[in-house]
C-alpha cells in the first residue's frame, strides 16, 4: 500500500459522501466526514476524532468507540472493546478503555435491532440488560447512555457509545435521527475503509520484514542537509502546521485559529501539496521532523 492507494480510496469516499443524491446533507456530519477523510490512514485517530465530535454534539460525559459488539451472520461473536474514548474534563466518568463487553448479551444484541440510535434513559431500570451488564455499566458511572451501531451497508462495523452520569439527559430526537443516518451513510464506510488501509499497511510491513519507515520528502544534498520545505508555507499555513504537529484535532485547530473547518481543510491541502505528502497522518511525522530541526 502506498500514497496512491490512500488517495484513491479518499477520492472514492469523497465522491460517495459529498456528491449526488445520496450525499450527506447534515452540515455537522459533513464536517466530521471531511475531517475523517484527512486521517483515513490512521484508524485510531478516526475513532478518537469521532468520539470527540460526538461528545460535543451530545454534551455527553463520556464517549467511547471501537470495533465489534455484534454477532455475525455465522453466529460468531465479535465482542466490543473500546479503543478510543473522550471524557468531559470536569467531573469525568471512569475510563472504559480496554473493557470487554460480551456481544451475546441481550442488551448488546438489542442495540442492533434499533433503526437509528438505542436510547437508554435509566440504566438501572433497563430490562434488556442482564444483572451482570447492568452492574458493569453502573460500576463505570453510567446512569444513561446512547448506543450507536455503525454499519458499512449491511455489514456491522462497531459501536459508539455516549454515556451520562445522570438519568434521562436532554438528548434531542432530531439529532439522534441524524446520528443514525450518519452512522450508516458515512461513519461505517469511513471507519471500515480506515481499518482496511491499516490492515494492508501492516501486511505490507510484515511482507517486507520491517515496520513502515518514516517518509523522507527529499534526498539529502552533498553536505547531508535538506532544504527547509517549511519556508514555502505562508504564515497562516505555518501556524496550522505547528498545531497539527502538536497533535491537535481538526476541530481544535479551527478553534485555535478562529476559522471554519472548511478553511482548515483548504490550508491542510495546501500544506500537503507544498510538502509533497498525501495524508495527514504522514504529514504529522514530517512536520515534527522539520519543526524539530528549526528549534535546533
> Main beta sheet: strand number and arrangement?
5 strands, antiparallel
Shape: globular
Q: How many β-strand stretches?
A: 9
CATH topology of the largest domain: Beta-Lactamase
CATH superfamily of the largest domain: GAF domain
Kindly, what is the distance between the CA atoms of the first and last residues, rounded to a whole number of angstroms?
34 Å
Q: Helix and strand succession?
A: HHHEEEEEEHEHEEHHHHH
Second-tier CATH architecture of the largest domain: 2-Layer Sandwich
Summary tags:
two-stranded antiparallel sheet, Beta-Lactamase, Arc Repressor Mutant, subunit A, 296 residues, 49% helix, globular, 2 domains
Structural commentary:
The chain is an alpha+beta fold and 296 residues long. 49% of the residues lie in helices and 14% in strands. It folds into 2 domains: 3-199, 2-Layer Sandwich (Beta-Lactamase), CATH 3.30.450.40; 229-295, Orthogonal Bundle (Arc Repressor Mutant, subunit A), CATH 1.10.10.10. The chain is built from 10 helices and 9 strands. A 5-stranded antiparallel sheet has the order 5-1-9-8-7. Strands 2-3 form a two-stranded antiparallel ribbon. Strands 4-6 form a two-stranded antiparallel sheet.
Write the layout of secondary structure elements.
Elements (H helix, E strand, L loop, with lengths): L2 H16 L8 H12 L4 H16 L3 E6 L2 E2 L5 E2 L1 E2 L2 E4 L12 E2 L4 H6 L6 E3 L10 H9 L4 E9 L2 E10 L8 H36 L26 H11 L4 H8 L3 H15 L4 H16 L1
Antiparallel strand pairs: 1-5, 1-9, 2-3, 4-6, 7-8, 8-9
Amino acid at each position: 500500500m502506498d500514497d496512491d492507494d490512500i488517495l484513491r480510496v479518499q477520492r472514492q469516499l469523497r465522491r460517495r459522501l459529498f456528491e449526488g443524491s445520496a450525499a450527506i446533507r447534515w452540515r455537522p456530519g459533513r464536517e466530521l466526514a471531511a475531517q475523517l477523510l484527512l486521517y483515513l490512514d490512521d484508524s485510531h485517530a478516526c475513532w478518537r476524532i469521532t468520539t470527540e465530535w460526538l461528545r460535543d454534539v451530545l454534551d455527553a460525559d463520556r464517549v467511547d468507540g471501537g470495533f465489534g459488539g455484534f454477532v455475525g451472520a455465522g453466529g460468531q461473536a465479535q465482542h466490543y472493546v473500546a479503543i478510543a474514548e473522550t471524557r468531559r474534563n470536569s467531573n469525568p466518568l471512569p475510563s472504559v478503555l480496554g473493557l470487554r463487553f460480551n456481544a451475546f448479551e441481550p442488551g448488546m444484541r438489542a442495540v442492533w435491532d434499533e433503526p437509528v440510535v438505542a436510547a437508554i434513559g435509566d440504566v438501572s431500570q433497563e430490562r434488556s440488560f442482564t444483572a451482570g451488564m447492568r452492574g458493569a455499566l453502573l460500576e463505570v458511572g453510567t446512569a444513561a447512555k446512547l448506543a450507536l451501531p455503525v454499519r458499512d451497508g449491511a455489514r456491522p462495523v462497531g459501536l459508539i457509545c455516549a454515556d451520562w452520569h445522570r438519568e434521562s439527559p436532554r438528548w434531542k430526537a432530531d439529532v439522534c435521527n441524524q446520528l443514525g443516518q450518519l452512522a450508516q451513510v458515512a461513519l461505517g464506510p469511513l471507519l471500515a475503509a480506515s481499518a482496511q488501509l491499516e490492515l494492508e499497511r501492516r501486511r505490507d510491513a510484515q511482507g517486507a520484514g520491517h515496520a513502515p519507515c518514516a517518509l523522507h520528502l527529499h534526498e539529502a544534498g552533498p553536505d547531508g542537509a535538506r532544504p527547509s520545505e517549511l519556508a514555502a508555507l505562508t504564515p497562516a499555513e505555518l501556524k496550522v502546521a505547528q498545531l497539527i504537529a502538536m497533535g491537535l484535532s481538526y476541530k481544535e485547530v479551527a478553534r485555535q485559529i478562529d476559522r471554519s473547518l472548511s478553511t482548515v481543510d483548504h490550508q491542510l491541502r495546501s500544506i500537503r501539496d507544498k510538502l509533497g505528502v498525501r495524508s495527514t497522518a504522514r504529514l504529522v511525522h514530517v512536520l515534527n521532523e522539520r519543526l524539530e530541526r528549526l528549534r535546533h
